[in-house]
Write a structure and sequence with these properties.
Amino acid/polyamine transporter I
Length: about 525
């Protein structure tokens, strides 16, 4: 029996029929997960946060999220093997607990995905502007709201067209993106090493005074505490990178041999992402200038990776090539996330779990892709991007909560992106724990055996600890409040998303009940 026939039968036993094209190879499945995780995008975006708040020693904090997420990946792998269905976390939680619990897991995960698309596609704007201004003598301003909006729309348009034309195209974009990631991590490390590092290996164990206000590159004060101060913030620069591997489960219905391949793709994306991230971060740290002023600039928000590359690489064509690689890494990352979010929307709609489900669940006869779900996965991020225009010029006070001046609504929404992912992960693992307590038995080709409960508990503890570290309000003047969660704002956004979710949940209850009786929405005829 072929892998495809076996997987179609497995899908049928779960209540669904094969509508999407099962064309993603092992490498394509891995690439979707790896380009979403995207070491390049994460490090280019977060190096200054990590090195600036924790100093060179922050690199070793990478072990914490990698090990923690490895336990999570094993739990997800077992669930993905048992339930190789589009929608991943939503479906896992639906089967281990119930439909309503699964709905809420999927809701937080979906909003976090859509927010992340907006964050990634707006995040690449400065790099595109730099290339355009250099190559074509334009005068694009990456901080201009209209520039951000127009470029984001253009990127989403291209990503949407590619995602609509088939899973095979999505896989090819992701596969090429993986090669770009390898070049942008290993390649840059080799280039920086060839140019000559400015520090010895022992430098990676130093803090460079990051725990003290006078010598902290970001101007925040940990009052001399590194382990119980700087480290708690610096570790977030790694925590923001090591997820996305679960997207291999989102495209399970389009993956050949999904029951066996999805767990492998998840673990490989995480572990290879860890190796490439460590090598790139180490190279960047060793390439920081040796003088105090140069080091401070390299590890500040105004310097970061671009400053380090410009300081060490004097060949303009080579710098432009690296900049081009960065742009494609962002593009392929956004494309993979949009593909994952579209499959989650399709999975929701097919179950009647959202208003207008029959429309969103339609599958193209020509491309065998959920076209309307892909379109919705582009429209919502555009709406989120419009929030960059909401940018108060003075502090706004709501009781004990202060919304800081000059922080756009998009920035505050993006602060939910990572915490929303961790919340969805945590709820999914809790669902697996509940399932095990009720006697749930995994039915896929990948199982954790007797270690399952222990691995699930460890994963749950890690996710809870990191989630608290992400969202705990410590004041706008504190390093965490100033650099990431804006004190109570992330929790406030989460409460708002919960309230909106309640409205959608109540609207969808009737159609969910109908689907429970009649089965999933039928294919578009």
């Amino acid at each position: 029996m072929s892998d495809n026939v076996s997987e179609e039968q497995r899908l049928g036993s779960l209540g669904y029929k094969q509508e999407l094209s099962r064309v993603l190879s092992k490498f394509a499945s891995f690439s979707v997960a790896f380009t979403y995780l995207s070491p390049m995008v994460g490090i280019y975006s977060l190096f200054a946060l990590g090195a600036g708040s924790g100093g060179p020693r922050y690199i070793w904090l990478m072990v914490i999220p990698v090990v923690g997420m490895f336990f999570v990946a094993q739990v997800f792998g077992e669930l993905g093997s048992s339930y190789p269905v589009s929608g991943a976390l939503y479906q896992y939680s639906k089967f281990t607990v119930n439909r309503r619990y699964g709905w809420w897991v999927g809701w937080f995960y979906l909003i976090a995905l859509l927010v992340t698309i907006a964050a990634v596609d707006t995040g690449v704007v400065p790099y595109i502007c730099a290339l355009s201004n250099e190559w074509f003598s334009t005068t694009l301003d990456p901080s201009n709201h209209m520039t951000i909006l127009m470029m984001t729309i253009a990127l989403l348009l291209i990503q949407t067209v590619l995602n609509i034309t088939g899973a095979k195209v999505m896989g090819r974009v992701a596969s090429f993106g993986s090669y770009v990631e390898f070049f942008g991590t290993f390649g840059i490390a080799v280039i920086l090493a060839a140019a000559g590092f400015h520090h010895g290996f022992g430098f990676l164990f130093s803090t460079e005074g990051a725990q003290n206000l006078a010598t902290n590159s970001l101007g925040v004060d940990f009052h001399g505490n590194w382990w119980m101060g700087a480290a708690l913030v610096a570790v977030l620069a790694h925590a923001f990178i090591f997820y996305g591997f679960e997207s291999a489960g989102d495209v399970a219905e389009e993956t050949v041999g999904a029951s066996a391949q999805v767990p492998k793709a998840m673990k490989n994306a995480l572990l290879i992402g860890a190796v490439t991230s460590f090598i790139l971060v180490a190279a960047l740290l060793l390439a920081t200038p040796s003088d105090p002023a140069g080091y401070k600039q390299a590890t500040s928000l105004s310097g970061g990776v671009p400053f380090i590359l410009e300081h060490n690489i004097h060949s303009k064509p080579l710098r432009d090539l690296l900049l081009l690689a960065v742009c494609f890494a962002f593009f392929s990352c956004g494309s993979s996330i949009q593909g994952a979010s579209a499959r989650l929307l399709f999975s929701y709609a097919r179950d009647g779990a959202m208003p207008g489900g029959r429309f969103v669940a339609r599958v193209s006869r020509r491309f065998h892709t959920p076209i309307n779900a892909v379109l919705l996965g582009a429209i919502v991020p555009v709406l989120f991007t419009l929030m960059v225009n909401i940018n108060p010029s003075h502090d706004l006070h709501f009781g004990f909560i202060t919304y800081p001046a000059n922080v756009s609504a998009l920035t505050s929404l993006v602060s939910f992106g990572v915490s929303g992912i961790y919340l969805a992960f945590l709820l999914t693992v809790i669902g697996a724990f509940i399932g095990r307590m009720r006697g749930w038995k995994p039915s896929g080709s990948y199982t954790l055996g007797k270690r399952g409960m222990l691995i699930t508990v460890v994963a749950m503890i890690y996710l809870l600890a990191m989630f608290v570290n992400l969202v705990i309000p410590t004041g706008l003047s504190s390093p965490r409040g100033a650099l990431f969660n804006l004190d109570w704002i992330t929790l406030l956004v989460m409460a708002g998303i919960t309230a909106v979710g309640l409205v959608f949940f109540l609207m969808a209850r009737t159609s969910m009940a109908e689907v429970e009786k009649t089965g999933p929405v039928k294919e578009w005829m």
